[in-house]
């Protein structure tokens, strides 16, 4: 969605290439986005109540501009609509009154970007992940999961998944939960869109099936 774990880990599936991102220090009591370090730690703290307990995010690995926040956002789309902005590595949930909840994201790498309208056809918690045939051709080591990888912290889909459909057909693209903070703000996936697990759980709870999703051109 490189590191390896037993030769094959969640990022090797989603990234497919090595990743090197410099960690960004948070030396002051305020971040550049005017969010205090304590507030950021509160947003991205551990979630022990989950089926597979989720650890706190190492926020030193996330640029503060990608922290979840409410922003002004002008659009003709209805409240509740999800807008993916791959060029700037953001996902927006449109709120009332010209506002949006903004989340930092990872997006598709070169050759895997796409744009257009879709909708949430189904939702999954701790979903089983099955690599597409095209991925198995590119990465033969993924064949061991051709019958599915059970849900868990190492599963590429993570804690929550929104499956995107067009005209009644599954696109194979998802908005998923990432436990790899260093990927936020990067184009590294095979076309899917990843949010930090805490952000994805926040978005998932507010997103019903049939929600419109607009993916902007990169």
TrEMBL record:
PROSITE patterns: LD_TPASE, PROKAR_LIPOPROTEIN, TAT. Pfam families: YkuD. Keywords: Acyltransferase, Cell shape, Cell wall biogenesis/degradation, Glycosyltransferase, Hydrolase, Peptidoglycan synthesis, Transferase. The keyword Disulfide bond does not apply. Signal peptide: none annotated. SUPFAM superfamilies: L,D-transpeptidase catalytic domain-like. This is L,D-transpeptidase. It comes from Methylobacterium komagatae.
